[in-house]
Design a protein that fits this description.
Blueprint: E1 2-11, H1 15-26, E2 31-35, H2 41-45, H3 48-65, H4 80-90, H5 100-106, E3 109-112, E4 114-119, E5 122-126, E6 132-143, E7 147-149, H6 165-169, E8 177-181, H7 185-197, E9 200-204, H8 215-227, E10 231-233, E11 237-242, E12 248-252, E13 257-260, E14 262-265, E15 269-271, E16 305-307, H9 318-337, E17 359-362, E18 367-372, H10 375-380, E19 385-391, H11 396-401, E20 407-414, E21 419-427, H12 434-442, H13 447-450, H14 463-473
Parallel strand pairs: 1-2, 1-6, 2-3, 6-16, 8-9, 8-14, 9-10
Antiparallel strand pairs: 4-5, 5-6, 7-15, 11-12, 12-13, 17-18, 18-21, 19-20, 20-21
The chain binds flavin-adenine dinucleotide (FAD).
Flavin-adenine dinucleotide binds at residues 11-17, 34-38, 41-43, 47-48, 51-52, 114-115, 144-146, 165, 169, 186, 272, 276, 309-310, 316-319, 321.
Length: 475
């Protein structure tokens, strides 16, 4: 057993843990990261990157097919083997060697193994060969262990060897048919990907697809999946079994049954906090860690424990977790270097946007790009709102982008302050429209001022002018 001291110990070398350590190191703290699998985390190897690598080739093909003249040049089927090979390149064949020079260059130490809290500012790491390394932090420990797929308690499901998103994003042999239980982002994206890869897809979604977003999102994605041959059912599975021939049968509460080669469970996430020693510091294993805007965990004496990224359940997205990671790294360093300062010098950079101003993109067909509150969420939060809708296909830039472009846009306005609380775009290639909306919402830019942010002609960004005109017409 060895015992080593650092200023900061970070548990988990996903995108978030890397950012916490990087920002703290840049502020002169000596940091170590503990990682039990691959440096880069789920995002790099089983989530964001491989899923987007699977979705990009069919999306590029569809973009060409939507434009006369280009359409004629894209006549063959998708080359599935090439799609999977390109995905393999993006995940470096599940080898993290390429990430190590960055850690070394940044001056961050790495200990490989499973880390558990062993008391105040102490972490015990069990290495692959069974050794124990004890790490002591002079100042703080940051838990950045992420989340894992939640397997719901449906009779027979666990024994039916279901896929999680990891199996879907690392697929080697595309199944003839795939049933997907769930209706969130993972379900929508994987349904889009596997339809394109040639599986017969059935989505079983209790509340329909993308129910947490504006209804224009789920409606459009469902329509397109159905047009592409997928089945989208509203229902709840009540039993699952894998038969002798190897197929999985799912019984629904409606009495319907669905049979498929594989079943993917996409019903949410659970925190990776069950086996990280929380019980040794008076917290409950297996729960999400509740934090303040500096990412400090509530209820820990001495305030030495931080949690950033998925494990705190604020916003289960890489970009938002990295934003938290930057905030945590700066907060930890500031509290070390200027502990007596009344006003925290980093407080402007605390993770305040997590509450109502989170941008996200669903890379389905069509794409859904959204920031901030939906109309329902804004009303529930007590805002006096007006909802402005506009047909994204009616904008001249959209028509040029694709023949017969179909899309939708919605802006939710806070009537008392004249600012946008939320914006949603649905349509092909809307992901790149999102950041302007993020700036408008996070910057609380008055709509009267946005009027002077003139969108270039002929681009899809002219949707902004149309939304503002529609808003003014309703005054
Ligand atoms: C299919 C899918 C697609 C997604 N696509 C997107 C997307 O396009 N864009 C987006 O923004 N978000 C996306 N997400 C969400 C995104 O993957 C997560 O928000 C992000 O990975 C969270 O980063 P993290 O660092 O908190 O956790 P992770 O990336 O999960 O990293 C946590 C790390 O901690 C390690 N670890 C865990 N426990 C221990 C321990 N006890 N000791 C040592 N190490 C430990 C793990 O091995 C892992 O490497 C997607 C999620 C899924 C499931």
């Amino acid at each position: 057993m060895t015992d080593v001291q650092y200023d900061l110990i970070v548990l988990g070398a996903g995108p978030v843990g890397e950012n916490v350590a990087d920002y703290a190191t840049q502020a002169s703290l000596k940091c170590v990261i503990v990682e039990s699998e691959l440096v880069g985390g789920d995002c790099s190897f089983w989530a964001c990157i491989p899923s987007k690598a699977l979705l990009r080739p069919p999306s590029a093909r569809d973009a060409a097919r939507r434009v006369a003249g280009a359409r004629e040049a894209v006549t063959g089927p998708l080359d599935v083997a090439a799609v999977l090979a390109r995905r393999d390149e993006f995940v470096s064949n599940w080898d993290d060697a390429g990430s190590l020079p960055w850690l070394e260059g940044a001056g961050i130490d790495l200990v490989r193994g499973h880390g558990r809290l062993a008391g105040e500012r102490r972490v015990e790491v069990t290495t692959a060969d069974g050794d124990t390394v004890v790490l002591t932090a002079r100042h703080a420990v940051a838990v950045c262990t992420g989340s894992a797929a939640l397997i719901p308690n449906i009779p027979g499901l666990a024994d039916a060897n279901p896929w999680t998103s990891r199996d879907a994003t690392s697929v080697k042999d595309v199944p003839a048919s795939l049933a997907i239980i769930g209706g969130g982002v993972v379900a929508a994206e994987m349904a889009t990907a596997f339809v394109a890869l040639g599986s017969e897809v059935t989505v079983i979604a209790r509340s329909g697809l993308l129910a947490g977003l504006e209804d224009i999102a789920g409606d459009a994605v469902t329509k397109r999946l159905r047009a592409d041959g997928a089945t989208v059912l509203h229902g709840s599975p009540v039993g699952v079994s894998r038969g002798g021939a190897g197929d999985v049968t799912i019984e629904l509460d409606s009495g319907e049954t669905v049979t498929a080669t594989e079943v993917l469970v996409a019903t949410g996430r659970t925190p990776r906090s069950a086996d990280i020693g929380l019980e040794r510091i008076g917290l409950t294993p297996g729960e999400w860690l509740t934090v303040d805007d500096s990412l400090r965990v509530d209820g820990v004496d001495g305030g030495w424990l931080y949690a950033a990224g998925d494990v705190n359940h604020r916003a289960l997205l890489t970009h938002q977790g990295k934003y938290q990671g930057r905030a945590a790294g700066m907060a930890i360093a500031a509290r070390v270097t200027a502990p007596t300062t009344e006003a925290d010098p980093w407080s402007d950079l605390a993770a305040s946007a997590d509450h109502e101003r989170v941008p996200s993109v669903v890379f389905s067909e069509p794409q859904v790009a959204s920031i901030g509150l939906t109309a329902d969420a804004a009303a529930k939060a007590g805002y006096r709102t007006r909802v402005v809708d506009y047909d994204l296909g009616a904008v001249s830039g959209s028509g040029l982008h694709a023949d017969g472009y179909e899309g939708a846009a919605r802006m939710v306005v806070d009537e008392d302050r004249g600012v946008a609380l939320g914006v949603t775009f649905v349509g092909a290639d809307v992901a790149e429209l999102l950041h302007a909306a993020t700036i408008a919402v996070v910057g609380e830019v008055p709509l009267s001022r946005l009027w002077h942010a003139v969108p270039a002609f002929p681009t899809m960004s002219e949707i902004w002018l149309r939304l503002l005109e529609t808003y003014r017409a309703g005054e």
